[in-house]
Amino acid sequence: MNVLLTIVLAVQILSALGMIGLILLQHGKGADMGAAFGSGASGSLFGATGSANFLSRTTAVLATVFFVCTLGLAYLGGAYRTPDSGSVLDRAAVPATSPAAPAASGPANQIPGTSAPAPAASSAAVPAAPAAPASGAAQIPSK
């Protein structure tokens, strides 16, 4: 099954590269006007209109091959999955519990190169939150 997936993927990549090349070789809509007055591809291998038909038909064939390969890859990609039963929450990862830390450990002890504990922050340095949200002119910050 893995070999078939690799083959279909290789065919899809080659058809995509072929389509890119053929699309870049094709003339735009305005190129027909220049060929009507004698310039352009009138003396080419395919003639004035032969290259347009050949390139557009080859592009259509490669687009069909690309589309079929895409459908095949979607089918083969789904074949590797097994249907899961149950909820997504049943498969959720259980958070790992950390061992109990000693009482003296804090953020300052986790910094490498420091051995002394940081001074404790006072509760007066933390501003108290307002009891009710401000409304009206109280929402406008002052300078």
Tell me what the structure shows.
The protein starts with a helix and ends in a 64-residue tail after the last helix. It has 143 residues and is mainly α. It has helices at 2-25, 31-36, 50-79. The chain has a domain at 2-25 and 41-79. It contains three helices and no strands. Helix content is 42%, strand content 0%.
Q: What characteristics describe this protein?
A:
143 residues, mainly alpha, extended
Topology at a glance:
Blueprint: H1 2-25, H2 31-36, H3 50-79
Alpha-carbon Rg, integer: 35 Å
Beta-strand level of the residues, as a percent range? Answer: under 5%
Total beta-strand segments: 0
Anisotropy-based shape: extended
Q: Tell me the distance between the termini.
A: 71 Å
Question: Tally the helices: what do you get?
Answer: 3
Which percent range fits the helix content? 40-55%
Largest sheet, in brief, is: none
Question: Mean pLDDT score, rounded?
Answer: 73
Q: Give the low-pLDDT segments.
A: none
In short:
This protein has 3 helices and no strands. By secondary structure, it is mostly helical. The chain has a domain at 2-25 and 41-79.
